[in-house]
Amino acid sequence: MSPAFQRLVIGCDGKVTKCCGDSNRMITLGDANETTIADIWKSEKLHKIRLLHQGGRYEEVPTCSLCVINRHNKGDEWNWLFKEH
Ligand code: SF4
User: Pseudo-torsion of CA 38, 56, 15, 28, nearest 10°?
Assistant: First the structure.
């Protein structure tokens, strides 16, 4: 399951991103100093990202198109990372 459905990352300054794959903060979802985590979790911005993930359209999310984690869904060279051992 995509991290976009599982977690949020909150920076020490309160800025919230969808996962550790966005360490450059290309997509800031909100500021925990100003908005509740629940509101950020239910935000339209994150909802749109989840819909794209659900539809397998990772490439349309800027950070996700660059992320190695999304590749496990494409059957490429990163598959070995996700196989059960
Ligand atoms: S594909 Fe990468 S950047 Fe996008 S939500 Fe998943 S882990 Fe984060």
Answer: -120
Task: Give the residue whose CA is nearest to atom 7 of ligand 1.
Answer: 21
Tokens read off for 64: 């996700």
- Ligand 1 centroid–CA 68 distance in Å is 8
Greatest distance between any 2 Cα atoms in the chain:
44
Global pTM reads: 0.80
Summarize pLDDT for 5-63 with one digit per residue, the tens: 889 999 999 999 999 888 889 999 999 999 999 999 999 999 999 999 888 888 899 88
Beta carbons of 35 and 46 less than 8 angstroms apart: no
- With the C-alpha atoms ordered 9, 15, 16, 22, is the resulting torsion angle positive or negative? negative
- Ligand 1 and 29: CB distance under 6 A: no
